[in-house]
Write a structure and sequence with these properties.
Blueprint (H helix, E strand, L loop, with lengths): L3 H21 L1 H8 L3 H4 L1 H20 L5 H20 L4 H28 L6 H30 L1 H22 L12 H7 L3 H21 L2 H8 L7 H23 L3 H17 L1 H4 L3 H17 L1 H11 L4 H28 L6 H27 L11 H5 L6
Helix pairs in contact: 1-4, 1-6, 1-7, 1-8, 4-6, 4-17, 5-6, 5-8, 6-7, 6-17, 7-8, 7-12, 7-16, 10-13, 10-16, 10-17, 10-18, 12-15, 13-15, 13-16, 13-18, 16-17, 17-18
Length: 404
């Protein structure tokens, strides 16, 4: 695999760290800025809102720029948001800074996925996307715990300065390792990017992302009470168990990339079916500590097996304008985060038990399978004779491979 993929992974590592670390630092932030923890929790929502708005918006306005330039510019914006977070004078300034930090998130992964696929042979496209996403999953295993520990000992502001340093490393890596693509990057333009979003298959692919990852977040948002109330773990054990989720997510991400290069739709169906099964078994698995730990790992594997296939599916369906659609898929991921957490919360509030959010997630995973099956039916009706397999073939057709 090209070394340039490392630059994308470094950027993904920084973004993943800053997205999730705030959850572990809410008590410190709330105490320092003299707000309640629920109020401090709005910092999570501000970041997610930035992702949802920034993903399609920044991808659209930069459609005619070199993708290499766009990636570097997005990381500059990322660093600026984190530096402003570190020096925020009060809660309102920090809220605005977190929104700013979220703006480049979706566009970076969206444009980065397109760039990653241009640097490899057609049969390795899914693996190239999974290697970029590797930075995101490793952030949950290494980056978030390390950054949380830094914030607890040196203050939460030090954490954001540390994440800013990661962003600077990412900028340098992108500048030195990503080939210049000015020869073909302006080939699409905003009008074709927007036109690609009119396609029904694109919206079905985005709908699969919302339902599929909504299933994950329905359960994962309430994993702590499941582990403590149902499985009987002590509060101090939860951090280690969440690291196990990151290990499972990393393994699932790499597995999904490899499998999707052989069968994109088969991997997607298999991942969603596995996710539904794991979530449906949560009430049983959360009865003992060792099976609960196994459930956390399996949840990470099953959910992230679908990550690369979903990203690649959206790009393939929007072959005429992949950057905007790919970025929109990141917005869909964050909508899944919010919607899944809301649905899981409804199940919990209804008094169905600590593991009920997982059962609700299983229903969402089945819904995702239904949307994916509908998309497959639409594809068969629109199939081009002689085309046997769905691949992200848009890159060689729309833009030649990058060259240093």
């Amino acid at each position: 695999m090209p070394l340039a993929l490392l630059a994308l992974a470094v950027g993904a590592f920084g973004i993943g760290t800053t997205e999730f670390v705030i959850m572990g630092l809410l008590p410190e932030v709330a105490d320092d800025l003299h707000v309640s923890i629920p109020t401090a929790g709005h910092l999570v929502s501000a970041y997610a809102l930035g992702v949802v708005i920034g993903a399609p918006l920044l991808a659209a306005v930069t459609a005619r720029l070199s993708r290499r330039t766009v990636l570097i510019g997005l990381m500059v914006l990322f660093v600026a948001g984190n530096v402003l977070s570190a020096f925020a004078a009060n809660y309102d300034y920090l809220l605005a800074a977190r929104f700013l930090s979220g703006l480049p998130h979706g566009a970076f992964f969206g444009v980065g996925a397109v760039v990653a696929t241009t640097m490899v042979a057609p049969e390795r496209k899914a693996r190239s996307v999974s290697l970029m996403f590797l930075g995101l999953t490793v952030a949950n295993v290494v980056g978030v715990p390390a950054a949380t520990l830094m914030g607890q000992h040196l203050g939460w502001r030090a954490t954001f300065l540390g994440v800013s340093a990661i962003g600077l490393v990412a900028i340098a890596s992108l500048a030195f390792l990503i080939p210049h693509d000015h020869a073909h990057a302006p080939a699409v333009g905003l009008r074709r990017e927007l036109a690609a979003l009119k396609s029904l298959p694109v919206w079905l692919a985005l709908g699969t992302t919302v339902a599929g990852f909504g299933a994950l977040f329905s359960a994962y948002s309430y994993i702590t009470p499941m582990l403590t109330d149902a499985a009987g773990f002590a509060d101090g054990s939860v951090t280690l168990l969440l690291a196990l989720f990151g290990v499972g997510a990393t393994a699932g991400n790499l597995m999904g990339g490899r499998l999707a290069d052989h069968s994109l739709r088969g991997t997607l169906f298999g991942g969603l079916l596995s996710l539904a099964a794991v979530l449906a078994l949560f009430p049983l698995l959360m009865t003992t500590e060792w099976t609960a730990a196994l459930a956390v790992i399996l949840l990470g594997v099953a959910a992230f097996v679908t990550g690369s296939p979903l990203q690649l599916m959206v790009m393939e369906k929007a072959a005429a304008g992949p950057s905007l659609a790919s970025s929109a898929n990141q917005a869909a991921f964050n909508l899944a985060n919010a919607g899944g957490a809301w649905i899981g919360g409804l199940a919990l509030a209804a008094g169905f038990g600590a593991t009920s959010p997982a059962v609700a997630g299983a229903v969402l995973a089945v819904l995702g399978l239904g949307v994916a099956a509908t998309a497959a039916t639409v594809d068969r009706r629109r199939a081009v004779p002689g085309r046997e397999r769905v691949v992200a073939a848009h890159v060689p057709e729309q833009a030649p491979a990058l060259h240093p």
